[in-house]
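Before any further analysis, we paired sequence with structure tokens, yielding the entry below:
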Amino acid sequence: TINSTQTEVGDTIAVSYFRSAKYILQIEQGSSYQVIELLLLHDNTTPSFMEYGNVSTGNVLGNVSATISNGIVNLIITRVNSSSSMNVLVYRVILRSGAGSESITFQ
């Protein structure tokens, strides 16, 4: 729940644990709803992401950004309308880096 602040960290993951992730965010504010789908990728210092789905029942409720600080990727959710709190449900799928990952090498 995002209450008194405009911005909240929606998720954090160590850069050493993954290289890319897919997110689906569902935002609820009163009787208004929004869903965002995005891909996130990082190079250990800079996160890159692309929203490829963003649907709302009216006005946009929130926006998404990403940062890396002290080896942690932060998915940031910014509330557009500060008049009331909003609930955010976060679903993620990650592709792990390193041990335990299966990969194919092309030569």
Remarks:
- The first strand starts at residue 7 and ends at 14.
- The mean pLDDT is 87.
- The beta strands are 7-14, 18-29, 32-42, 47-56, 62-69, 72-79, 87-96.
- The two ends are 48 Å apart (CA to CA).
